[in-house]
Structure formats: C-alpha cells, structure tokens
Write a structure and sequence with these properties.
4-stranded antiparallel beta sheet, mainly beta, about 150 residues, 10 strands
Length: about 150
Amino acid sequence: TGQVDCWGDNTYGLLGDGDFNRTAVPVSVVGIGGVGALNGVASLTPNNLGMCALLTTGQVDCWGDNTYGLLGDGDFNRTAVPVSVVGIGGVGALNGVSSLAATTMGMCAILATSQLNCWGKGIAGALGNGIFYRLNGMLSDTGSAVPVAVLSKV
C-alpha cells in the first residue's frame, strides 16, 4: 500500500507516529504535519537516529533526530512526524529523486538528472560542496540543514 509501520525505541521520534514513546507493536507513520498516514512510499533509508522515505512522486520525507540538519527541512529541530526535504537553498521541495543513501550523520539523494544532493553533517568537506564546516559548538556551523549540490570532479 506504500504505507509504513514502525516499532521499537522512539527516543528521537524514530517511529514517526507523532510522539516519543517506545512501543513493542507496530504503529503507523503519520503524514506531513501529523495528518493522516504517510503513503506513497517507495523505499526507506535510515540514518543514525532518523529515517527518510523516498516517495513514488520522487520527493523525500524524513523524521527523527535532526542533529547537523539530518532531516533536510531547513532547521535543526528533531521531530516525531515526517517533514518534507526542501530543495537546494531551502526553496520548494526536493524532487526528482531516484534513490537515497545514508552517510555518517547525513543523507544523499541521487536525482533522475544524475546530480547528487547531500545534507547533514559537513565536517571535513563531507557534503562535497566545497565547504569545510567547522565544529565550534553550534550545530548550524557543522552541517547543512538543506540539500547542497555535490560538485563535479575538476
């Protein structure tokens, strides 16, 4: 049906059911904003403390921990309900995604155009956008909460 059920630890909102309570029985992942049920899911990709769903529309919804901007929604706040990953520069929604891959504390999307967009932790140039994010105690300085284009090899 393209809907998702989860169970287990829910400390960071990993279950996507709108709360932070663990459960030993499956619960339905809710839709954006906690309305209805998440549907149209083609595949799921977990990262450290979160989950991203590639939708059949080519868009991506994520939920859970948002340290380093792991959810790609433009902020650093964890959430127990799915949020839409925004487009480059925080404009619109990321679309045209053909597959997802988790990195260490980040996520990358391969687009149908063969471009690669990544978001999350960017220390040591990990996002591939030419920026060396630094660790100075501020999460906003350690990564990108919106997708960035990975540069091509020169």
